[in-house]
Amino acid sequence: MTEPLLIVGGGLAGAEAAWQAARAGQPVVIREMRPDRATFAHKTGDLAEMVCSNSFRSDDDAENAVGLLHWELRQAGSLIMAMADAHKLPAGGALAVDRAAFARAVTERLRAHPLVAVETGEATALPDRPAIVATGPLTSDALGAAIRAATGADALAFFDAIAPIVHFDSIDLSQAWFQSRYDKGATEAERRAYLNCPMDRDRYEAFIDALLGAEVTRFHPGEDAPYFDGCLPIEVMAARGRETLRHGPMKPVGLTNPHAPTVKPHAVVQLRRDNALGTLYNIVGFQTKMKYGAQVSVLRMIPGLEQARFARLGGIHRNTFLNSPRLLDSQLRLRARPHLRFAGQITGVEGYVESAAMGLLAGRMAAADLAGAPCPAPPPETAHGALIHHVTGGAEAATFQPMNVNFGLFPPVEAKRGRRHRRDRYRAYTDRAKAAWAAWLRGAALDAA
């Protein structure tokens, strides 16, 4: 009997890797430390639990790099995308999901697969058999030490933050209103996917003062890792300049307040539905490291949230990732121990979808290796190919930092430059990528799909 492929970690990357390997006919064992060993960020023992936000970001596959990644994942039979589509929530042009229902569905599908077994318990050492390590940004201290010992290099890290979640029935709808920016969305529900809380100049300035004066979580000695720019705490953004938030998550553009249609807000705080029932809303872009007491008092300064009740307050955690350009080969294998592959955020990609994409590639590549028919990496003209090329050699090892998928990772296209031609240029990237991805899938078909 074929020895099962071991996958250490049952997050989005591990879940996708297991699904892809099992589709290829490869028996799989997922080892997940939760619920035996909890983390501060996770709340359940489910696989693929989303802990930061409930958004997979833009679903536009014609002009957006992450939307293109969604498209590629769907074409490849991704479990993560299938369950995201099954449990999606209105979110304008974005793909947001009911995170609890999503994680339960992923868990149920994997547990029901005849070639997938799920074990619980912490892995404290690197396996000595073929395995994929997909332990994510919250890799345990013991396993992190084992990785450092195997690589002869320190793992890298950055700090990440989580946004608060509010009970919908505590939001004052006489001040807030439903609207997506520029009324974006194909349906009425999508055009009303966000709750908006307006601020005038005085309330904005008072809010910034409160943010800058709030008590925050202090780092322990030696914790000198940087933040990831795509997930900065709001108080860090405020410290970079009093207008920074107005040009970021609080920008007041594309919105009209029906309670005062002739008054242009100075700033707007947006909330997005967090579950299918519509009973929970997360505050968009409001990651924070403020202490809990400070969060409650500062966030209740937002018009419409004066009586807010919080289902979860924000927090901060240390994310661990490898110097992948130095440590991994083009097949995501650890150079020092080629029977081990790494996948997900620990490789230095940032984002739910990017993590799932690395899981998809690792699962397919590992299954192909075990079957004696290696799977080539996808071409760099594809979103998957651009990501794996970046983390396994395209980036400079000396300055390597976590990266979301973006068109800057792709080989240039032949298209006119300048803002006037931007949409045409983006479409040139996605058209080329779709053709290349379809060709790669034909050549890397899963035998037992």
Description:
The protein has 449 residues and is α+β, with helices and mostly antiparallel strands. It folds into 2 domains: 5-155 and 322-443, FAD/NAD(P)-binding domain; 162-318, Elongation Factor Tu (Ef-tu), domain 3 (Beta Barrel), CATH 2.40.30. The protein is built from 13 helices and 17 strands. The chain has helices at 12-23, 65-75, 79-86, 99-112, 141-151, 188-191, 201-213, 234-239, 292-299, 324-327, 352-370, 383-394, 422-443, and strands at residues 5-8, 28-32, 55-58, 88-89, 94-97, 116-120, 131-133, 156-162, 165-167, 177-178, 194-199, 267-273, 280-283, 310-312, 315-321, 333-334, 337-342. A 6-stranded mixed beta sheet has the order 6-2-1-7-17-16, with helices on one face. Helices cover 32% and strands 16% of the residues.
Summary tags:
FAD/NAD(P)-binding domain, 17 strands, 449 residues, 6-stranded antiparallel β-sheet, 16% strand, alpha+beta, Elongation Factor Tu (Ef-tu), domain 3, 13 helices, 6-stranded mixed β-sheet, 2 domains
Quickly describe the structure.
This protein has helices at 12-23, 65-75, 79-86, 99-112, 141-151, 188-191, 201-213, 234-239, 292-299, 324-327, 352-370, 383-394, 422-443; strands spanning 5-8, 28-32, 55-58, 88-89, 94-97, 116-120, 131-133, 156-162, 165-167, 177-178, 194-199, 267-273, 280-283, 310-312, 315-321, 333-334, 337-342.
